[in-house]
Predict the 3D structure of the following.
Amino acid sequence: MYNAGLTQRRIDNILRVGGGAQGRSDAFDAKFDWTRGARLAIVPRARPRRALNDSGFRRMKQFLLRFFTWWNGATLNTLFYTRRHGELVGHDQFGNAYYRSRGGKIDPALGFERRWVIYNGISEASMTPPGWNGWLHHTVDVPPTEEDYKPHPWELPHMGNPTGTPTAIRPKGSTLRHGPRQPTAGDYEAWSPGA
């Protein structure tokens, strides 16, 4: 686009400074009249190309989280060890993956086979259901995927520890609970000094 809003004095200054700065020779300047029909074109600067798109940014973020933190899932070293020495046993309803030493090999340092979990998301031990928790801690030898356990009708489904989250359990009388507070019981008698 051409900018017709510039004054002649501004155009002359641009051409004067521009001619010397470009390094043109005086012989060439004498043959050519720079001021005749001069227009200054202002072209918008090209936008820089984004280095990472959204999926690339997410992958880079996931890599850095796996490299520098242990609480955001398995670290790179854990994933490498699992790939080389682990045997997948199964998954639970939360998407956590459970592994043991390949072939049920006994670890000489421990005296029993290694068992571990790779959490789906944040590493939170309370997100391990009771059946898998028993298998991880060698309380039972058979993983839940190889047994046909049926929960009793009175059993509630497993829920991780919600403490410190927005879904935390707040009993009646808690100051953090919304709504009116329960009245104090009739057996409470307030203490007053000097009585």
Observations:
- The helical segments are 8-22, 26-31, 54-68, 76-85, 130-136.
